[in-house]
C-alpha cells in the first residue's frame, strides 16, 4: 500500500451551505484522496475537513481546497467566535502510514510555496514545520487575527515564511504545517456567561499554567446561548481527555455551573476515547492492543 498522509484544513465558513458543499466537492475530486469527515459550526463560523491520501494526491487536494476557499470566502465580511486569520485558516499534515513527521514537513513546505506562488496568499509555517520557536504554537502565530494581521506583518519578527509582508485582501493569511494527531475536544457549560468559560480555559491550557498538551479558549455558542471551553489536545496520551474534563467540571462548580455535554470535532484516534472509558469504568490491567476487538480485525 502507498504511504498515507492525513490533512485537516480548517476553513472560515460554517454557515453558507453552497460554499461548504463546494469545498466537499473539491475535496472529493482528487484521485488518491478520500474525504473521511467534515463538520461545520455556525457559531464558530468554521468548517473542519479530514482527508487522507497518498503523498501526491493529498498535496493536490490541499491546494485545490485553499484555492476554492480563496475564491468564495471573503474575510472582510467574516464574523465568528473562533479565532481566524484566513479563508483557509490552517492546513496541517499528519503522518498516518509509513510516513515520518519529517516527510510531512517537506510536504507542508511544498504546498505552502505553491499556495503563495499561485494564489498570492502569504504563509506562516507552524508546529513541526516552524522555522523558529516563536512560530510553533498556532495561537501565537494567529494572534491579532485577520483584522490585526496587516500591522503584525510589518513587525520585524513576523515576516511570512512565504510571501510579502501584506495579507491577501480577501483570503488573509494561512498557516501550513506538520504535526502529530490531536483531538479537537469541546466542553459545553450550562451558562451563557462567556467570562466563566474564558476563566476555565485559562486554567486548563498550557499557556495559563495548566495542562502541558492542552490549548483552550472560551467560546459563545450563540445558537444555543451557552458558553463552551474549546480545546485542542495536542498529545492525548500526555494529557488525557478525562483529566481535563474533570478539571473543567471542578472549576465550573465554583461558579455554580455544570457541564451539559462535550463534543469531538472531526476524527479522533480510538485510543483517546478508550483511555477515557478505561478511566471512568475503572477497568483494571486493561490492555488496549489485545482487548479491543477492532485492533485484531485491522491487523
TrEMBL record:
<dbReference type="Pfam" id="PF02971">
    <property type="entry name" value="FTCD"/>
</dbReference>
<feature type="domain" description="Formiminotransferase N-terminal subdomain">
    <location>
        <begin position="3"/>
        <end position="180"/>
    </location>
</feature>
<dbReference type="InterPro" id="IPR037070">
    <property type="entry name" value="Formiminotransferase_C_sf"/>
</dbReference>
<dbReference type="GO" id="GO:0005737">
    <property type="term" value="C:cytoplasm"/>
</dbReference>
<keyword id="KW-0369">Histidine metabolism</keyword>
<dbReference type="InterPro" id="IPR004227">
    <property type="entry name" value="Formiminotransferase_cat"/>
</dbReference>
<dbReference type="GO" id="GO:0019556">
    <property type="term" value="P:L-histidine catabolic process to glutamate and formamide"/>
</dbReference>
<dbReference type="GO" id="GO:0030409">
    <property type="term" value="F:glutamate formimidoyltransferase activity"/>
</dbReference>
<dbReference type="GO" id="GO:0019557">
    <property type="term" value="P:L-histidine catabolic process to glutamate and formate"/>
</dbReference>
<feature type="domain" description="Formiminotransferase C-terminal subdomain">
    <location>
        <begin position="181"/>
        <end position="296"/>
    </location>
</feature>
<dbReference type="Pfam" id="PF07837">
    <property type="entry name" value="FTCD_N"/>
</dbReference>
<keyword id="KW-0963">Cytoplasm</keyword>
<dbReference type="InterPro" id="IPR022384">
    <property type="entry name" value="FormiminoTrfase_cat_dom_sf"/>
</dbReference>
<dbReference type="GO" id="GO:0005542">
    <property type="term" value="F:folic acid binding"/>
</dbReference>
<protein>
    <recommendedName>
        <fullName>glutamate formimidoyltransferase</fullName>
        <ecNumber>2.1.2.5</ecNumber>
    </recommendedName>
</protein>
<dbReference type="InterPro" id="IPR012886">
    <property type="entry name" value="Formiminotransferase_N"/>
</dbReference>
<dbReference type="InterPro" id="IPR051623">
    <property type="entry name" value="FTCD"/>
</dbReference>
<comment type="pathway">
    <text>Amino-acid degradation; L-histidine degradation into L-glutamate; L-glutamate from N-formimidoyl-L-glutamate (transferase route): step 1/1.</text>
</comment>
<keyword id="KW-0808">Transferase</keyword>
<keyword id="KW-0290">Folate-binding</keyword>
<dbReference type="InterPro" id="IPR037064">
    <property type="entry name" value="Formiminotransferase_N_sf"/>
</dbReference>
<dbReference type="InterPro" id="IPR013802">
    <property type="entry name" value="Formiminotransferase_C"/>
</dbReference>
